[in-house]
Design brief:
single chain; 233 residues; two-stranded antiparallel sheet; 10 helices; 72% helix
Amino acid sequence: MTDDHRQRAQVLGGIALASVLAWQTALGSLVLYPFTILATWFHEMGHGIGAMLTGNQFERLVIYADGSGVAQSLRPVDGLALTDAVIAASGPLGPAIAGALLIVSSRSPKATRIALTVLGAALVLSTAIWVRSLVGWLVLPPLGLAILLIAHGLSPQIQKFAIQLLGVQACISVWKQFGYLFSPGGLVGGQMQRSDTGAIADALLLPYWFWGASISAAILALLWGSFRTAFRS
């Protein structure tokens, strides 16, 4: 890794840490509000895609003004517990996998443009197909259009930094509410809901904090591996 690459990785790592810390405060969440909504979209789309990959129907995605959200899917009452666990885990892990791929795409200008185009289009199209909340409609399409503008109107250097930043935001989206990952449940739209790790624990045994720690370790590994690949000389 060259000195320039090392410095870029340090900057992105610093932004990631600062974002996670800021999200734990009311002021930080307000300052980062567009990224807060984007983090919620990453997370809830992970659940929705997980539902579809397991043969279930992704119904709709709701994002609330406080930055919380929910992905609603139709699943059989007598479905497998493993399926429920996979869908629950897809919320935190799906965006991390996607984020790692976004970061890796920055090695090539062509791959960077394609990744930005796909992400921007996904924000716009997913809003039209699944998002059923005013906040989502007000924030997500403009973000998608801005990303498309970056992909087709700005310099390769800006595109490279943008895709790396967005990849990092996808990876860390699960830590937007750090306590939620390490708790059995929390407030979603003003109502108590079972947390993702709580749902995994219900399906697969072992306590929620074990799954929270395991998911966090997997995300850190994905982030580290994607940095090493993206900044490899």
